[in-house]
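Q: Start with the shorter request: fold the first protein.
A: Done. Sequence, then structure:
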Amino acid sequence: MYGITVHNLQKNNKVDSISVNQFREKLKHCVETVVREHQPLKVTRRNGEDFVVISAEDWSREQETLYVLQNQSLMQQIAESQVTHQANKGYKPSAEELDEIAGI
C-alpha cells in the first residue's frame, strides 16, 4: 500500500507499520495514502515512542465516536432505539419524508 515493506500489527485490525526512517523517505506518499485509504499508519522509532498517522477526517470521526460511547445519556437513547427497532414499533416516515431526507 505504501510502496515499502509494512508489517500488519493485528490481523483483525489493519494497521500497517513502518520505521521512522522509511516514513521520512516516503512522507508525501505515506500521508497521501493515509488520507485516501482512510487507514492509519503506525510509525516505529528505535529510541522513542511510536506514533500513528491518521487523517483529520478519520480523527474527527474517532473523537465523535468516543464522545458518544462516553455519554451515558446518548448510549441509553441508542439502546432504547435498538429495542424499538427490533420490535418494529418505531416511527416510519412516509415516502415523501424519505425523499426529502435523501434530497430527491
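Q: Next, the second protein, separately.
A: Sequence, then structure:
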Amino acid sequence: MSDTSSASIPADEAVVVQKAPFAVDVESGKKYWWCSCGRSATQPFCDGSHKGTGFVPLEYAADKDGALYLCGCKATCKSPFCDGTYGKL
C-alpha cells in the first residue's frame, strides 16, 4: 500500500501511503480518526502506529451519512480531506 517502507521514513515525516484519496462511507453521528502519519495498517484510519512520532490522529465527526474522500498522501492542506496535493508529489 505504501510507496515507501515506513521504517525508512524519519519519525517527523509522514509516509505517503498512496497518491490518491481513500473513498470511505461514513455514518452520521459516528466519530472517525484519520491517520496523519501514514504508518497505520488500517488506512486511512489510525491504529496507533504514530506513537513515537510527532503525529496525532485527526478526529472527524460525521454529521451525515455518505461518501468522503480522505487524503492518502498525508500532504493535504484540508485534513482529513483530499485536496489534490498528491498530483504534485
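Q: Describe the second briefly.
A: DSSP finds no helices and four strands in the chain. The radius of gyration is 13 Å.
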